[in-house]
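In the current project phase, the collection of sequences with tokenised folds has grown. A sample record is quoted in full directly below:
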Amino acid sequence: MSEPRPKVLILGAGFGGLWTARALRRFDADITLLDRNNFHTFLPLLYQVGAAELEPFAIARPVRTITRGQDNLHFLNADALRLDLEKKLVYTSHGVHAYDFLVVALGTVAWDFGTPGARDHAFPLKTLEDGIALRSHVLSRFETALHEPAAEKRASLLRFVVVGGGPTGVEYAGALSELVRGPLERDYPALAGEASIVLLEAGDRLLTAMSSRLSAYARRRLEKMGVEIRLGARVTAVWEDGVQLLEPAREGGSPDHRLGATTVAWTAGVQGPPVVRSWGLPVTPGGRVRVSGTLQVEDRPEVFIVGDLAQMPEGQDLPMLAQVAMQGGRHTARAIEAIHAGRSPRAFRYRDKGLLAVIGRNSAAARVAGRDFTGLPAWWLWLLIHIVYLIGFRNRFAVLLNWAWDYLFFERVARILLPFRRQAPAWPAETSDS
């Protein structure tokens, strides 16, 4: 009598989970891929949804379409609620599922560092819904400002604050500047020149994962685009109409002061999904799960953590990038096959393919193969890589069409204000130790 096929349960259809599933397409197993959404989001372009550069459908693709034809895989649209490590069971919103191998690839969620008011008034940018909500809110500020007679109130309505000087913050600030100073100034000529964008970074430079040369380039480029950059600026509170800042190095005035703004885009921090904290896994204070060099959980060799959620051993930290998740997914698939065959899995080795950040039209910062690139060459490289890794011909075509239209006509095709869409921040559930 033949042995039963192993059950592989994958939580999360992001880069890590999806690449694990696809790499197991020839493995003789019953694979269940679970996600609370029925679509995969290409997160590197999410900020462009928030800046009205792309429609949401351009960066999202149904998981069932992506996995169509993979006979050993079943997709389950559900929430993972509870994990029983001893009995190897996952409790979901659609029943209980047993596993022989568990892959947790749930990614990370926005984190406000406990900043008062951030959850009520700042907009995170981690999900497709976040991007739609932020876009609608930005557009609504111009509609509201058009009917506001008080100059001070208009200035607050049209001041857009971006918190966090990492790749997402830099890219969103640049894209927002092009939106505000291009199409929106033509749409609202009565408000021309009144909008302002402020990028706040608590550290001493932007893009700290890149070289100081690329960091300085990004700052010069953003300032040329009209973005006000404040380094060493820590947000200590967020209100409906502004943020409280602590700027010890600020020249003149109090280092603790208030900046009026009704739009705060929060790109400053992430943590593991709060639900994971109750699962009995070795979780760090930041909510990520500690793993061994093989991406396995200690004393639980059947459990793998892939992507942003995985906290590697000390000295082996990896950046939270799509490439890390994709390579981790392929590694996990090989490890599962090895264990099933009675072999020991190899350690995960990440091949660094570089870092990229686009900063508006014809401009980007890139670190590839140990070399720094800026300007047009880096921009073309950024375009090529993002098109290549987009899943699906329709998505690639839609993104290329939108980019071409924007590039040729300085126009944004996604400036549709949907009043029935959520325009308020929606942060993940809080936990007592987050």
Remarks:
- The mean pLDDT is 94.
- The domain at 7-36+78-108+272-340 is CATH 3.50.50.60 (FAD/NAD(P)-binding domain).
- DSSP finds twelve helices and 26 strands in the chain.
- The longest helix spans residues 322-340.
